[in-house]
Amino acid sequence: MADTLIDFDEVVATYDPALGLEVHVELNTNTKMFCGCPTTFGGEPNTQVCPTCLGLPGAMPVVNAKAVEAAIRIGLALNCDIAEWCRFARKNYFYPDMPKNFQTSQYDEPICFEGYLDVDVEGETFRVEIERAHMEEDTGKSTHIGGATGRIQGADHSLVDYNRAGIPLIEIVTKPILGAGEKAPLVARAYVAQLRDLIVALGVSDARMDQGSIRADVNLSLSPKGSGVLGTRTETKNVNSLRSVERAVRFEMSRHAAVLDAGGSILQETRHFHEADGTTSSGRPKSDAEDYRYFPEPDLVPVAPSREWVEELRGTLPENPTAKRARLQEEWGFSDLEMRDTVGAGALSLVEETVAAGASPQSARKWWLSDLARRANDAGVELAEVGVTPEQVAGVQRLVDAKTINDKLARQVFDGLIAGEGTPEEIVAARGLAVVSDDGALSAAVDKAIETNPDVADKIRDGKVAAAGALIGAVMKEMRGQADAGRVRELILEKLA
Ligand code: ZN
Ligand code: MN
User: Fold this and answer.
1) Which terminus of the chain has a lower count of CB atoms within 10 Å, N or C?
2) Model pTM?
3) Region 362-390 average pLDDT
């Protein structure tokens, strides 16, 4: 079916999309959800384990208070109600990287419920309703050896590392997002982007999508336009970049429409997203909740956060994201369009940090939205992962402001930064990039340019000052772009006066 995709414009003319997003956030607590094992990343396999997170007989779990605190703060930031009393539940299914044969999660009694997040999509505010945010634990990690793709298919054997088993997760589930129409891919992306910003501001997770500390499952269904009936959904699992969230929605919309147009029906299943070509492929049939035989966890006491504690935590929330965008726009003097582009590019916090590191808002915006955005796009990575930090961008701009380099040379400094050649100053020195404003060197280059372009020189002598541009260009070329263009112009006009 994937080879008969329906054109996106046609899809939105015929169908209404319904989105649903499930985002898992890995918390940055020091210890696991139900035991005292450390959560540090990258340890030797199976060294950060104990009888509880290995599911050994008789081991008893204890709830991590810091994880409950983080769950409540996330819930409050998402405008949720916080349960006065809630329980954990066992979600039963077999998977080799889950040693207990059940995941300790929450089912019908989540800690946070009924919230919303207002997201900004091309200057319009779109309210995404949150159904719930609940606490659960991560699984271990399987590595399949011997297959071509690292997948289980074709492997000779698999290895399991339980260091990740039991790390606290918060799963945030939206209600069906209706009415987004053609903007559905952008709404999905903006929601995940702004949720990530919120998580960063709360300081409860590393929030690295590329490292899996934020993972998005994208649910999508189509219904005939105006029918108001929800169609059968598919769930594309573990989408790990903002760009991929948008692409996964776009692809599934076109694929669903192709199946439906051909008179087929959508299979309720999970799907895998493929970065390389932006497609999805069939995973496993999606189980319904009853298949998991949820029941209340008998080894854990209920969680009953006092109202005093909840109010105390409300006092620790970061600035509301919508209010923050308005404040920054005012402080930076950005037009609505400049602000919209900055938010749309996922550059808001990068620009904010670059300004905090000393750059002017306009210069910070310029670098992130032009040169660095182009590089990120070419490399197929998020802007934040382009290989240049906000501090470095501010450092490059400092050199431009000091007239040590110009914008063109700055691009070569970014090349050096991405290649890991050192600080902006070191790269300018090592690559010999500094602008030459010394009259001796410039004067010789100007003389040469006049000599080789006598007709241009004559025009300038006749008062056609605009012709100087051609000579400036010749000098810049001669000096590999490193001449101080302003001084070159002065010298040309002096010499031809
Ligand atoms: Zn443990
Ligand atoms: Mn989950």
Assistant:
1) C
2) 0.79
3) 93
